[in-house]
Amino acid sequence: MPITPAPESSPFLLPAEFRAAVAQHAQPLAPAAPPPGPLRRSRRAAPLARESARRAARADRLLIADDADGPPPRHVRPRRIARGGVVLLLAVGGALLLGSTAAVTALVSGGGADAAADAQLFSDAPPPVAALPVPVMKQAQVSADICGVPEVMTALEAHDDAAAVTAAGGAEAFRLAVAEGRARCVDLADPTRVWAVINKARPYSPVDYRPTGLVMPDGVRSIEGGALRSDAASALTALVTAAREAGVGEIALESGFRSYQTQEGSYGRQVAQRGQEGADLVSARPGFSEHQSGLAADVVACAGECGSLDDLAASAQGAWIVDHAWEHGWIVRYSEGSTDVTGYSPEPWHLRYIGAELARTYHDGGWTSLEEFFGLEPAPGYVG
Ligand SMILES: [Zn+2]
């Protein structure tokens, strides 16, 4: 196999240099053997003083060079070549003839003993690059504001809430971004969005907000004739149909949208019956009810006759809703144990539409309030 000259940057001996070294060390019995030093320089037969200075300078360079990105510095030891004499050099030559630079390196550097010496030489050097901290690119990516994603902005402008959630990386990514303050373009106070959060600390603005596109859900018995926003109406039809097909019975809509004026009347009646404190636990003040958004539905179970709101929880339909409402974009908004956060006693009948993807994430994450879901402060009572 022909010997290929090593490139200039190779850490290994050049063949020409090797031949020069062989020529020099072929007289191992000469009375004044060259002092220890780098092999490449030893062939110049430099005076002892200059050689010592070079070695000191070289040691400094080695310590500095170890930080650089280039190939490791050479540290072939001519002393070993001088001791080993011709036999070793012949072995090196044989290895070169075999074309194995690795073999040459192993022979010349002498393996274990000199490797230990090398370790000593570099003991003050910084740790290998592999041990340095690796920048966490993923973290940087996750911390980006989702409003920097053009598709999110396009979907928001088109009022396509589902597409915005998808463009943000899915419902969990969307939720996290909102909760961590990385969604400046997502307004939880905007009642036209499926992710709107209305509670005792977050009234509508304007307070008499009224949604557009209210319709009656197809194929759903309506007790009070309440309408829903069209997306919520379709989703309620899907929920009621699925329950019927699952054999759990009929679910009817007790009430849906309530205008600001309607709330004034109903809240006033509750206050008359229970006093303000009692009324606040069961009825929203005007301008604070989820029903005003057209995204909330109070449902009841029917078997011929329909039961009351309070009857739902103990019914087959009530149990089915707990397990399956999320599959159609609905959540039970006021759940057991969350009164301190939502400000309302549990209402198993009060469903809130938040869209299929967000509802799935809400269910999968075991969330029990929209406030906690989006990282908002609890709203146990009215402010002021
Ligand atoms: Zn309700």
What does this molecule look like?
By secondary structure, this protein is α+β, with helices and mostly antiparallel strands. It folds into three domains: 117 residues, no CATH class; 54 residues, no CATH class; 178 residues, Muramoyl-pentapeptide Carboxypeptidase, domain 2 (2-Layer Sandwich), CATH 3.30.1380.10. Strands 3, 4, 5, 6 and 7 form a five-stranded antiparallel beta sheet that branches. It has a two-stranded antiparallel sheet with strand order 1-2. Strand 4 and strand 5 form a beta hairpin. The longest helix is centred in the last third of the chain and has 23 residues. The protein is globular, with a radius of gyration of 40 Å. It binds zinc ion. Zinc ion binds next to strand 4.
Instruction: Output the radius of gyration.
Output: 40 Å
Helicity range: 40-55%
Bound compounds, please? zinc ion
- Domain tally: 3
Note the gap between the termini: 92 Å
Approximate shape: globular
Q: Main β-sheet: number of strands, strand sense, barrel status?
A: 5 strands, antiparallel
CATH architecture of the largest domain: 2-Layer Sandwich
Strands, total number = 7
Q: Averaging pLDDT over every residue, what do you get?
A: 76
Q: Please, how many helices?
A: 16
Draw up the topology in text:
Layout: H1 15-25, H2 39-42, H3 48-65, H4 78-97, H5 101-109, H6 112-121, H7 137-142, H8 150-157, H9 161-167, H10 171-179, E1 214-215, E2 228-229, H11 230-245, E3 250-255, H12 260-282, E4 296-303, E5 305-306, H13 316-324, E6 330-334, H14 339-342, E7 347-353, H15 356-364, H16 370-373
Antiparallel strand pairs: 1-2, 3-4, 4-5, 4-7, 6-7
Helix pairs in contact: 1-4, 4-5, 8-9
The structure holds zinc ion.
The site of zinc ion (ZN) has 4 residues, from strand 4.
